[in-house]
Amino acid sequence: MSRKASFLLLFLLLAAFLGCQWKLKSAEKQQQRESLKIERYDQTEILYLTTGDFGALKQMTTEYSAMTMTLVEDVLRLGRLDEPGINDRFFEFYQDSTLQTLLHDVQVAYDNMDDINDELDQAFVRLHEMFPHLKIPRVYTQVSALDQSIIVGNGMLAISLDKYMGENYPLYVHFGYTEQQRRMMTRSYIVPDCIAFYLLSVFPSEVEPAHKPRLQYVVNQVVNRKVFDDEQITRVEQYMNHHKELKPEQLLTDSIHII
Question: What are the phi and psi torsion angles at 93 (to 5°)?
Fold first, then answer.
């Protein structure tokens, strides 16, 4: 074989190897992106709380034990999960006619969450690019009896779907939520709120007034749309446009004076 032919063969082998490596890395990256799936704990919860289905209860206390513990003990504060009769107490709590209506309405409104799952997936991809050291939490949905919207802790992030039923949802009006509050209790705020509460758990404000518009500016970048918008956020955006060397983490951790 001539030197020219040998060189050509080596080049082809190298190109094939690099192409294979690129495909493997692309596949690994795609696999990592697809790993973020919102777990529909709410569906199992609703099944148990509306029918008393034993299989659903078993799934809640085994596969979803950490989620059930958080809901029963920390959110609803009904008692310890290992207490005698706690399952009956949990079930009976939701038999109130208003809560049964809420469970039904959530089931209908969020029968499909593909749009939210896709948006949250993309948001966490961008979040990882900005903050490579952050770990992606285990994300799941629940119905919390109109308690907290987003709960972050222990490597998990819970979305209370009953807090995102739309600004004109009758129960919100009935229970006296203000118009300003109801504007943010919509489907479109789920992903921004997830990112905001997650970042706040990593970079707490420590009662610093300037922290909120900075965090909201970063959330806008992560979700790739201007969800939060006011004069303070605009000033932060203008400052960051003039200081492109600054990283988002510096904005949230350093003492930067923004006029």
Answer: -55, -40
How far apart CA 190 and CA 164 sit, in angstroms, is: 7
pTM of the model: 0.85
Is the Cβ–Cβ distance between 223 and 195 less than 8 Å? Answer: yes
């987003």: which residue's tokens? 150
Give the tokens for residue 190: 């789920």
Residue 135 gets the label, from left (phi > 0), alpha (psi -120 to 50) or beta, of: beta
Nearest C-alpha neighbor of 222 from the set 243, 185, 195: 195
Give pLDDT tens digits for 223-256.
Answer: 999 999 999 999 999 999 999 999 999 999 888 7
Q: What is the pLDDT of residues 7-40, one digit of tens each?
A: 444 444 444 544 555 444 544 454 444 568 999 9
- Residue 154 backbone zone (phi > 0: left; psi -120 to 50: alpha; other: beta): left
124's CB contacts (< 8 A; 6+ apart) are 36, 136
